[in-house]
Specification:
Blueprint lengths: L15 H18 L7 H17 L5 H27 L3 H14 L4 H13 L3 H14 L4 H13 L3 H14 L4 H28 L3 H14 L4 H13 L3 H14 L5 H18 L1
C-alpha cells in the first residue's frame, strides 16, 4: 500500500491542477487499499510527503482548485477517521493512531481527531502523547468538555492528580451531566483521599503509632485496592505489630498487583519467618 514516488513540483510539465488531481488520486487509492491491509508508519510518511507537496503548491492554486482540495481532503479525512474508529473499537490501538494521524494531516483543525487519537494513545499507555493531543483539542475548541476529560485521564495515569482533578472539574463546568467526566472526577477524588490516608499512615509509623498507621493504610486500601504500595505499607506495619498472618496476606495481594516488585519477596520471607517464630514462642 506504499505510495509511488512523486516528482518535484519544479520538474513537472503538467498543470498545477493536473498535479493536484494526480496527488489526490494517489492518496485516495492508497487510503482505500489500506482498508484491507492496515497502515503502518511507512504509509504515514508517504502520505505526509504527498500532503506536503499539495501544501507546497497550495498558494498557486486557483480558488476553485483550493475548494476542490478542501472538499477532497475532508472526504479523505472522514475515510481515515472511520477506519481509525473501527480500529479503536476493536482495540487495535496502534492502527488507530496511524489512521487518526492521517486524518489529522488532512484536516489538522478537526479537534475530534485529536480526541480520538488521545484515546488510542491512552489505551497504549502512552500518556504524555495522550495529554499532548488532549491539550490540542482544548486549544482548538476550549468549550468542548470531552477535551478536558481526555486531559484528566492522561494526567491521572501520569500521577498528576491535582491537575487531573482540575481538568475534570473544568469539563464538568462545561457539561455537568457528562457521565464519563463525572466518573473520571470521582475516580480522581477517591485516589486523592486514598493517598491522603496513606500519607497519614506513614506519619503515624514515623511516630511509632503502629495500630493507628494500620487503620490509615486499611482506609487507603478500602478506597483504592489497586495500589500495591498501600498493601506494602500495611504489611510492614503489621510486621512491626507482630501480626505475621496479616503481613503475609498483604504480601500475597502485592504479588497479585505487582509481581515484579522485588521488595515483596523480602516482605513475604520476613512474614513467614515471623510466623514460624511466633508459633514456637
Amino acid at each position: 500500500s506504499n505510495l509511488p514516488p512523486t516528482q518535484s513540483t519544479k520538474t513537472l510539465v503538467m498543470t498545477q491542477s493536473h498535479f493536484l488531481q494526480t496527488l489526490a488520486f494517489n492518496l485516495q487509492t492508497s487510503l482505500s487499499s489500506c482498508k484491507s491491509s492496515p497502515p503502518d508508519d511507512a504509509n504515514l510518511i508517504d502520505w505526509q510527503q504527498q500532503i506536503d507537496q499539495i501544501t507546497e503548491i497550495h498558494s498557486t492554486l486557483s480558488e476553485q482548485e483550493k475548494e476542490q482540495w478542501i472538499s477532497l481532503s475532508k472526504s479523505l479525512s472522514e475515510l481515515a477517521k472511520s477506519q481509525g474508529n473501527q480500529s479503536l473499537s476493536s482495540n487495535q490501538n496502534e492502527q488507530a493512531v496511524i489512521w487518526f494521524s492521517v486524518a489529522i494531516l488532512l484536516t489538522p483543525e478537526n479537534h475530534i481527531l485529536y480526541s480520538n487519537r488521545s484515546a488510542a494513545f491512552a489505551n497504549l499507555r502512552r500518556y504524555p502523547e495522550a495529554l499532548k493531543d488532549a491539550e490540542k483539542v482544548i486549544e482548538i475548541d476550549s468549550t468542548w468538555a470531552k477535551g478536558y476529560s481526555r486531559k484528566g485521564l492522561a494526567l491521572y495515569f501520569m500521577k498528576k492528580y491535582d491537575e487531573s482533578l482540575e481538568a475534570y472539574q473544568k469539563g464538568l463546568s462545561l457539561d455537568p451531566t457528562n457521565e464519563i467526566t463525572i466518573k473520571g472526577l470521582e475516580t480522581v477524588q477517591v485516589k486523592v483521599k486514598a493517598l491522603d490516608a496513606n500519607e497519614k499512615g506513614e506519619e503515624a509509623v514515623a511516630k511509632n503509632k503502629i495500630p493507628e498507621a494500620i487503620a490509615y493504610f486499611t482506609k487507603a486500601i478500602d478506597l483504592d485496592a489497586t495500589e500495591y504500595l498501600f498493601y506494602a505499607n500495611r504489611s510492614e506495619a503489621n510486621l512491626k505489630n507482630m501480626n505475621a498472618v496479616q503481613a503475609l496476606a498483604d504480601s500475597d495481594e502485592i504479588i497479585k498487583l505487582y509481581p515484579q516488585w522485588v521488595k515483596v519477596i523480602y516482605l513475604k520471607a520476613l512474614s513467614r519467618y515471623l510466623f514460624v517464630v511466633l508459633i514456637y514462642l
